[in-house]
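thread: overnight batch results

M.L. [08:02]
morning all. the overnight job finished for the chain we discussed friday. pasting input first so we're all looking at the same thing
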Amino acid sequence: MEVIIAISGASGVQYGIRLLEILSNRDVITHLIITASAKKIIHIETKRTVAEIEAMASFVYDEKDFTAPFASGSHRTAAMVIAPCSMRTVGSIATGSANNLIGRAADVCLKEGRTLILMPRETPLSRIHLENLLRIQEAGAVILPACPGFYSNPTTIEELIDFMAGRVLDLMGMDNDLYGRWGNVTLE
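M.L. [08:03]
and the structure it wrote out:
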């Protein structure tokens, strides 16, 4: 299985990093794209280096590298996840402008009918944001806002991040026990 992980320049880079960490411990080939803005946010929001994060991926690509294999529909991948997904990236995908490799790879996923999961991390959302997200969803993508559930009574930030990572894995059809599922929690 091959999965494209894109980390764009929005707060919440921890979501993409955790997903990459999980997939690196499974039999999954990962293709990683980190935008220049995301690299700055990694420095601000985490204690990890970009090099540490890139070392977890099977392959790493510059956001301007349109020669990446998955920039063509003839290279088959199972899914693409953009976590977090900035509104700039959302706008690029919604208009089909493919101004960087993330936009092109997302465009390929949509045109080929492959799984594309966007985890937008913005609040509040403007009408333009909502219309762009709706347009992408109508084209076949899954919009998974970075809104973790609290029914499993998380006590750490890591548990909140794992909730979202687990939801992504669910959407890709991958078994996981990263979070307490509804129905498996005690209601008193």
